[in-house]
Amino acid sequence: MTVAPEDVDLSTVDLSDRDWWARPAQERHAALDRLRAEQPFAFFAEPDLPGIPAGPGYHAVTRYADLEAISSQPALFCSGRGAVSMQDVPAELHEFYGSLISMDDPRHAKIRRIVSKTFTPRMLERTLDSVRAVVDDVLARARATAEANGGVVDVVTDLAAPIPLRVICDMMGVPEEDRPGVLARSNVILSGGDPDLIEDDDPLTAFLTAGMEMAALMERLAAERVADPRDDLTTALVRSEVDGERLTHQEIASFFILLLVAGNETTRNAISQGLLALSEWPQERARWAADPSLDRTAVEEVVRWVSPVTWMRRTATRDGEVGGHRFTAGEKFLLFYNAANRDPAVFADPQRFDVGRDPNPHVGFGSKGPHFCLGAHLARRELQVTFRAVFDQLPDLEVTGPPDRLRSSFVNGLKHLPARLTGVR
Amino acid sequence: MRVGADRERCVGSGQCELLAPDVFEVGDDGAVRLLQEDPADDGAVRDAVQQCPTGALSLGDAP
């Protein structure tokens, strides 16, 4: 089934509607193509959020050049009024859940530099063996699961979720027994209110409870690290100082949640939807599997193709003009990375999945500006190791059904992706 | 070719270290450190300067 941009009725497209984001990828990209070509600063109303007064709405930025212009001028387009919600939620809420993401320089840079060394290519080189060991173990368990279930596996729960969960929990020093709880709460925090991920409560209560439970875990680990420092990120957070002052408990908890949630969800969705893309483009799969020298470009293409984080918000700090659009102070812009990543002004044949694409200046890790993804090098490494290991150890992995998509505008996620190992009898 | 770095602007994203590891390193304080100030003119160094997310790197003529 192909959906051409001209088939889309733009009057039915509401980027604020999380149900719209569960629609098939082709249909969503066709709509984003139309918006980019015809209404590059399309205006949308904000969805209702209980207890929050309705806000003025936002502009959806879909052209690569406009997105880069906004992202690279953080003094004019700030993050400190909230980068991860369309609505203007109370400051203490967006600071707690956004941490660095919803903070501006100079404090953002100072806090980020506490951990930036840990996420550099040189430092991560040292953890390569442990990432390989995690991936090998997860893949072996997935094969055992398939053997016990007539060959059936779930790409999300058996492969894509456990790999980044274990890697980031190892780096943070989260004990084994706490990890299932971290996964469940991380899912709730980024559920976008998807009812499948929220069991009893209303979405807001579930969201706040998950945050408090993660903060309680951090308090417990932090107390242990004060008495008994270790070589992990939690110890680094507890001992760190900015301008001669220790971070507050709230700042540490919020940073801790950010690292765990961001480390988990994004890489998971790149793995699951990268494998989905390979099943839809079998020639690209064969080409990449046969040639490890393509690992670098192929992983960048997976990140462009999937765009695991759909948008971040910026808010104008004063009046101005960008890309021919005049704006006033307080206007909100949502930067749609998935749309910019398929802008034909930058990418030749953008709707083609090409594991050799080079150059590939995608914005899947964010565009120019201080908020470029902290975990980009870690994610690249996890993805390179994972896909190569899948080709070697699960060559018979075959996607068998349609993906069960997360109903969220913010995270491009899958809840399930049915598959089987055809070698299992 | 002379390379400059603004350590206040730098957030330690490590893009430069990825592209030109002989010239750039993220230091223990989380900001960029120059391993050479006058590296040979090299496409990778130019890419690193151009692609720095925060624009913290600059190129100038060698003295």
Explain what the structure shows.
Chain B: Pfam families: Fer4_13. Chain B: This is Ferredoxin. Chain B: Residues 1-29 form the 4Fe-4S ferredoxin-type domain. Chain B: GO terms for molecular function: 3 iron, 4 sulfur cluster binding; electron transfer activity; iron ion binding. Chain B: Its cofactor is [3Fe-4S] cluster. The complex is a heterodimer of chains A (425) and B (63). With 425 residues, chain A is α+β, with helices and mostly antiparallel strands. Chain A has a single domain (5-421), classed as Cytochrome P450 (Cytochrome p450), CATH 1.10.630. Chain A contains 16 helices and 14 strands. In chain A, strands 1-2-10-7-3 form a five-stranded mixed beta sheet. A three-stranded antiparallel beta sheet of chain A has the order 4-14-11. In chain A, a hairpin with a 2-residue loop joins strand 5 and strand 6 (245-246). In chain A, helix 6 (128-148) crosses helix 16 (376-393) and helix 10 (203-227) packs across helix 12. Chain A is globular and about 65 Å long. Chain B is an alpha+beta fold and 63 residues long. Chain B has a single domain (2-60), classed as 2-Layer Sandwich (Alpha-Beta Plaits), CATH 3.30.70. In chain B, 22% of the residues lie in helices and 22% in strands. Chain B is built from two helices and four strands. Chain B has a two-stranded antiparallel sheet. Chain B has a two-stranded antiparallel sheet with strand order 2-3. The interface between A and B is medium-sized, with 25 and 21 residues.
